[in-house]
Amino acid sequence: MNKGLLIVYTGNGKGKTTAALGLALRAMGHDLRVCVIQFIKSNNDTGESLFSEEIKRLNKLFDFYVLGAGFTWSSAKLKNHVQAARDAWEISKELILSEKYDLIILDELTYIIRYKMVNEDEVINFLSKKPENLHLVITGRYASELLINAADLVTEMTEIKHPFKNGIRAQQGIDF
Amino acid sequence: MNKGLLIVYTGNGKGKTTAALGLALRAMGHDLRVCVIQFIKSNNDTGESLFSEEIKRLNKLFDFYVLGAGFTWSSAKLKNHVQAARDAWEISKELILSEKYDLIILDELTYIIRYKMVNEDEVINFLSKKPENLHLVITGRYASELLINAADLVTEMTEIKHPFKNGIRAQQGIDF
User: Fold this and answer.
1) Distance from the CA of A46 to the CA of which of A69, B2, B50, B73 falls in 20 to 30 A?
2) Chain A contact present for B165, CB below 8 A
3) What is the pLDDT of residue A77?
4) What are A84-134's pLDDT values in tens digits?
5) Does A66 score more than 90 pLDDT?
6) Distances (CA, A) of A41 to A37, A87, A155, B173
């Protein structure tokens, strides 16, 4: 039996969530059961979310939870964000322990640790005791030292060149 | 109409091919037509290759060309590698100009430039004149300065922590 890895994609460059989705595709090719939990994003019309609906017709398990409150960080809405983040973490814990999946992606979990929406020690402690065969992937900037220490594989994505700086806007199918 | 981007994922960290596959998944969610061309890898039993077969049943276009001669760099086989790489590049040019795809991934193209199996100037010149709406993704270590200059988006994946160093072997569904 494989050992389940704890994988972290961090850094300021593009490709973190995208790499996690690539793992999802590869895993589904081998009939692994995949779950994505998005902690910040709130939109259900991304390519990956739409794809998760369609792929059910192939009897692949690719469950997709969009649990964030979006990227609007106005102070009036901050309370909603904190509650959404805490709820998402509670749901994640259940899903991690459910044995329904071989690969679970905790997309942008790092932000809710960074902004102290959840207790870091509790999160790291829980992740360290994940089911042995389960692969867990965590994405987002600002991966903490504790998280990096707990991980098996850490890649930092660094921005070398970004198209938005040349006036090119975010594009369907590439950026979302 | 979107402007097609030239995207490069480079660096020594894991996640380059994986991020390209994530873009493929996202793009397919929006019904874009995707093609992957692998320049070095020679095995047809990766998760991504298996997935490309299955996805046809959803009427998605996800063509997958495994054109490499593998990772065995013995000098006796080097001639085969050079020929395989040149053939793959010729096929890529046709596919890029075919207008059959919205996204084409040239997986590990950087190596055949680095090892001078193809002429760098010719490659960069051709890529710079790609069809305007086509997104092109190039992966592999050692992306050259010319390639980075030609690209719209460049992310460097840096290895922070690698599980093989802790004695964990490559795993189906994650590494291939």
Assistant:
1) B50
2) no
3) 73
4) 999 999 999 999 999 999 999 999 999 999 999 999 999 999 999 999 999
5) yes
6) 10, 14, 22, 26
Q: How far is residue B7's CA from residue B33's CA, in Å, rounded to a whole number? A: 17
Alpha-helical runs (H) found in B5-140:
16-29, 47-54, 75-97, 109-114, 120-128
B37 sits in which H/E element: strand B34-38
pTM exceeding 0.90 = yes
CB B68 within 8 A of CB B137: no
Does B93 have pLDDT greater than 70? Answer: yes
Query: Each residue of A4-24: pLDDT tens digit?
Result: 999 999 999 999 999 999 999
Q: Is A145 designated active site? A: no
ipTM score: 0.94
Rounded to the nearest angstrom, the minimum Cα separation between B163 and chain A is 5
Evaluate if residue B159 carries a pLDDT over 80: yes
Measured distance CA(B112)–CA(B110) in Å, rounded: 6
B residues 127-156 closer than 8 Å to A (CB)? 135, 148, 151-156
d(CA B44, CA B3): 32
* Catalytic residue (one of A2, A26, A44, A119): A26
From the CA of A134, how many Å to the nearest CA of chain B?
A: 11
DSSP tag of A3: P
- Token couple for B103: 């996204």
